[in-house]
Amino acid sequence: MSMDLKSRVRVDLIKARKGRKRMETIVLSSLLSEIRNKEIELGRDLDDQDVTKVITKAVKQRKESSRLMLSGGRPELADKELEELTLLQEYLPTGLSESEIRSVVQGAIKEGFDQMGTLMAHVMPMVQGRVDGSEVNRIVREELKL
To answer: Which residue, 125, 126, 124, 128, is CA-closest to 52?
Structure first.
């Protein structure tokens, strides 16, 4: 039986602590804390899909922080954020190529989803955690010729 995502993060945290890997310990501890906070907010245990959403949000925050650190003239802090981002991405499903995303979007259009909002609402759950929403939005706009 395969391990769920939250358990995998816990096991990796224990390994990081035993290996005295400071950065990994901090990142994984904060990730587990974010997962726990989301569980409290929702009042239930999170499944893998929910945990993936939490990780995706953490990755997005680190991308933005890195961008801000670079624009603020702090490349060493930007590198730290990118290091953390790389670690977190290991817990996300493999990404989709542009042609794979386009294929999903075209399939949804053939099913009758022809409005921006309904199309995005239909496609996003299928690609969640595997691609950035802004990329999906761009492809949807191209396919709908907006």
So the answer is: 128
CATH topology assigned to domain 5-89 = Hypothetical Protein Yqey; Chain: A; domain1 (1.10.1510)
Cα–Cα distance measured from residue 113 to residue 129, given in angstroms and rounded to the nearest whole number: 22
**Regions in the chain scoring below 70 on pLDDT:** 1-2
pTM recorded for the entire structure? 0.76
Tokens in use for 80?
A: 């730290």
The b/e string for 110-143 (b: 16+ C-beta within 10 A; e otherwise) is eeebeeeeebbebbeeebbbbbeeeebeebbeeb
What would be the CATH architecture of the domain defined by 98-144?
Orthogonal Bundle (1.10)
Helix axes 48-71, 5-18, angle to 10 degrees: 50
Instruction: List pLDDT tens digits, range 68-96.
Output: 999 999 999 999 999 999 999 999 888 88
CA angle 98, 116, 131 (to 5 degrees): 30
Q: Where are the domains of the chain?
A: 5-89, 98-144
